[in-house]
Amino acid sequence: MREEHPHLSLVRRLWDAGARGDADAFYDLYAPDAVLRAHGVSSPLAGEFKGIAEILDYLARAGEIVDDSRSEIIDIYTSDAGAVIRYRTIATRGANYLDMQYLYVLTIGGGRILAATLVPTDQRRNDEFWRTH
What we know:
By secondary structure, this protein is α+β, with helices and mostly antiparallel strands. The chain has a single domain (about 5-130), classed as Nuclear Transport Factor 2, Chain: A (Roll). The protein has 4 helices and 6 strands. A 6-stranded mixed sheet has the order 2-1-6-5-4-3. The radius of gyration is 15 Å and the shape is globular. The termini are far apart.
């Protein structure tokens, strides 16, 4: 039987913490100075977020923008340098509907997430959905 890569366990804990809304778990999973980069051109959620507090604020703002949202993992790829989560999000905001895949690219070191990059598979559609004005 093949042994599970240690980054796979970290990714599963991250996903479970997000699903439970367990913000405290993020302090164990992310390095204190971790950076999240969210791709976007005109999305209010695009940018660079430094430190766990800013990352949690980013996640809270995303939750406030939508009426309903759910995500499911499609694949997880791991290496000694990090992991990539390919997932699908379905969300609604008023009459706006989003059904799209994303990549969450993680750099991992010392058992914690050092950096994360969120990449939508359709940048234009992503920006249109998340734009609030």
